[in-house]
Amino acid sequence: MKTSAVISVGTATLGAIVGAGGFGEPIMIGIRRDDLALIFQGAIPAALLAILIEFIFRRLERVVVPRGLFVTGRN
User: Global pTM?
Assistant: First the structure.
């Protein structure tokens, strides 16, 4: 589930290609204008959102999955 949630963020970011907007919109405009700052305005929030989702799912996993099911050495 963690992987699919993070992939969904990337897919939603690519939604700007079909006119859906979101974080992908500044990325696409920045690419067209060759403006690195504009690209980062969309890429950085999208990356932070993916990291936040990963962090939330990791914490949730610690609560939901019983201790005995974790592989040895896993944090």
Answer: 0.78
